[in-house]
Design a protein that fits this description.
With about 300 residues, this protein is mainly α. It is about 60% helix and about 0% strand. The protein has helices spanning about 60-70, 75-85, 90-95, 100-125, 130-155, 160-190, 215-225, 240-280, 285-309.
């Protein structure tokens, strides 16, 4: 009779012995406040990029390909036969006119400077904390209210207005985080309990501490970075991946041009034809036109999502 294989029980690791497969832990950071706890501690790809392992958007791309290429091939051909190429240089100038956008972007820098000098001034004025608090509230509120008022009353173009409002709302959220995080670091600094941010060891060559972080370079790096949570330090790669960066810039330019083409070639003619049914109410025809618009806008939204990936 063949010997039965002996079954050995796996030895349990003692609580004091770390698992062999465990990754080295990020240095622990004492949590003195909620806002100044470092969130971005390691180099990881964004969840919106194609290199992220967390999400897979292949289904959206397949759906867009089926809708655009298969289901609407006949409609695309009929559109070209009926209208020809509608996008021309004169129409393109109305979309890419950036005068109002540049003026608005320069105006937004005033709110950035106000937030910066308030934080600088607050370091040496411990008893003026309430004044700094209300100054930040007024500043971030005007950062949104002024662009909205200008877009509404100045009749800025749709592309420039949308871009200006998007920048204003992003800056609004970034300045809120900048004020809250620096407020908590300031309180720790006054109490002598300043704790450095817990950044992974490979990214700790030159960590900035409070109040050395109150510089224009630190602030504008935060404004340019694709994050909404302010930190004094962010994990960074060893070098800039120029080929990857230029590839993303090319994808953004291509998808933006494609959006303008779809808007002018397919969406605008449908909108103009829909207006006639709104003057003389015809519910079935109006519903059909709205369904055609929903498909066009759905394709455009997919292109926007693709450009961000």
């Amino acid at each position: 009779m063949a010997d039965q294989p002996t079954l050995h029980k796996r030895e349990k690791l003692k609580p004091s012995e770390p698992s062999p497969e465990a990754k080295p832990a990020v240095p622990h950071q004492e949590v003195l406040h909620y806002h100044n706890t470092a969130i971005h501690t390691e180099n990881t790809p964004s969840l919106l990029t194609s290199s992220s392992e967390e999400q897979n958007f292949r289904g959206f791309f397949n759906l867009a390909a089926i809708i655009l290429v298969v289901s609407h091939a006949r409609i695309v051909i009929e559109n070209f036969m009926k209208y020809g190429i509608l996008l021309n240089l004169s129409t393109l100038r109305t979309y890419v006119a950036t005068d109002d956008l540049l003026v608005g972007m320069i105006g937004l820098q005033i709110h950035v400077l106000v937030a910066f000098f308030l934080e600088k001034w607050a370091v040496g004025n411990k008893h003026k904390e309430q004044l700094v608090h209300w100054g930040n509230i007024i500043n971030v509120s005007l950062c949104v209210l002024i662009p909205c008022t200008c877009v509404y009353y100045a009749r800025i173009g749709p592309v420039g207005g949308a871009a200006l409002l998007a920048l204003a709302f992003v800056l609004f959220m970034k300045l809120i985080s900048y004020n809250l995080v620096n407020r908590d670091f300031r309180h720790d600094y006054w109490k002598g309990k300043a704790v450095p941010e817990a950044i992974s060891e490979r990214c700790r060559e030159s960590l900035v501490t409070y109040p050395q972080n109150l510089t224009f370079s630190n602030l504008y790096y935060f404004l340019a970075a694709p994050v909404l949570v302010y930190q004094m330090n962010y994990p960074r790669t060893k070098k800039i991946r120029w080929y990857w960066l230029m590839g993303k810039v090319g994808q953004f330019i291509f998808c933006t041009c494609l959006q303008l083409f779809i808007l002018e070639q397919f969406i605008m003619p449908t909108i103009k034809n829909t207006l006639t049914f709104m003057v003389t109410p015809n519910l079935p025809a109006l519903v059909a036109r709205l369904l055609k618009l929903s498909v066009r806008i759905g394709i455009r939204r997919e292109r926007i999502h693709r450009s961000r990936g």
